[in-house]
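User: Here's a chain of 296 residues. Predict its fold as tokens.
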Amino acid sequence: MSAKIFRVGLTGGIASGKSTAAKFFGALGVPIIAGRDFDESDDMTRRRVAIIDQALADRLWPNQSALGKPLNVEAFARGDFFRATAEVIGVVGHMKYLLLTDDGRPQVYQPYAQAAREHFGFTVRTTGQPLALVAAVRGELNKLDPDIPIAKILPMDEYVRQARAATRFTMLLAGALAALALILACIGIYGVTSYSVSQRRNEMGIRIALGAQRRDILKLVLAQGMGSVLAGVLIGLILSLLLMPAIAGLLFGVRPMDMLTYAAVALFLSGVALLACYVPARRAMRVDPMTALRYE
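Assistant: Prediction complete.
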């Protein structure tokens, strides 16, 4: 058992407070950006200390070190909450606790020995199957106190799955509608380009009869078809940038302004559209010039 976490209520103001034990951040893989972690000496006989996350440090002390700064925190003693001053001894990375699609409030962490709570939880880091350690963890906790009620033992993957459940249906629906829109767009591009080629069949035959190479016909049809496609992709990118703030809360693992994603989607749509234009263009290359001249 490598670390413990003790959850507490909101402290009020701009941050959420939690009581933790030493090695908690290491168990969850949270980087210590500055300062140090809690240790066993951080108890009621020493000065009150706290660790804050990078989000709170940037908000309270932008462009300067937060280490050594005094911080007003929520303390608990003899069944009552009160305000106290703690010294910031460390800065850690920001964590999401409730929703993966919401950054949440900045966090303040206090050592459990200085801010004990009645309800607490244990975080165990393992390289094997997490559920295989349930019996061992229960045994260790029973050694500490056989009367401790133990509930909700879940691997971190399950917590992540539950956190994603709220937006999974919405994203699946949006993905299905996007796929349908892509299919309809491809059908529309193919249909319009094919109809345009059929209407200009005689023109293509005359061009070939007058000396145009078949690759020139291919370039002509592709240029006309892809011109409209590229204009549509550009308009779509602009509208996406304008509308992104409305759906930013549904995204997880992708930044709202992730240029790599925009570029990948634009290239994919252009590639699919190019394929839709290529089939009619190939048909235009095979136009018989004698048939076109005989018709004229």
